[in-house]
Specification:
Elements lengths: L2 H19 L6 E6 L4 E7 L2 H4 L6 H13 L7 E7 L3 H10 L3 E6 L24 E4 L5 H17 L2
Helix pairs in contact: 1-5
């Protein structure tokens, strides 16, 4: 794993575990300022908790960061996430003008960066962040698998 993002990824992973414990899809996101490596915001999925289908970790972290920086753009900031962003979040990342997105686990079914509609390859995409993949030895993937296995197992009860 890229050492400069290691601590931030650990924070994102810990937030994913919080989401898991709250019966949310376990995804965590952290936004940092590139020049100082200061954490600007962090969040985890809260769709069930907030009764909102758009309250993904990325969307919440973006909103918090914009409020804290008092700016609708997050130029010079990067997002570290445990899962490849979905199309909605990928587009929001583009609108926010984040410099980089750093994530570990691909989302073959619902992703929007490397999979699915590949938002940043669209002619309608005005800003493409750099995409950095990190290796977390499959921890995020295992946590997601465990979450969905438990959901399927409990569905029959």
């Amino acid at each position: 794993m890229d050492q400069k993002y290691h601590l931030f990824y650990e924070l994102a992973y810990n937030l994913a575990q919080v989401a898991y414990d709250k019966d949310e899809v376990p995804v965590g996101a952290v936004i940092i300022k590139d020049s100082t490596f200061e954490v600007i915001s962090s969040s985890y999925n809260q769709m069930r908790q907030n009764r909102s289908s758009i309250d993904h970790a990325e969307m919440l972290a973006i909103k918090i960061a914009m409020t804290r920086l008092d700016n609708e753009r997050l130029n010079g900031c990067s997002m570290i996430i445990t899962l490849e962003p979905c199309p909605m979040c990928a587009q929001a990342i583009s609108f926010a003008r984040l410099s980089n997105i750093i994530f570990s686990t691909e989302d073959k079914k619902s992703g929007g960066v490397l999979n699915g509609p590949v938002i940043y390859n669209s002619s309608s995409c005005h800003h493409k962040p750099s995409i950095i993949r990190i290796n977390d030895e499959g921890r995020s993937k295992k946590l997601l698998k465990k979450f969905f296995q438990n959901k399927r197992k409990n569905k029959g009860n």
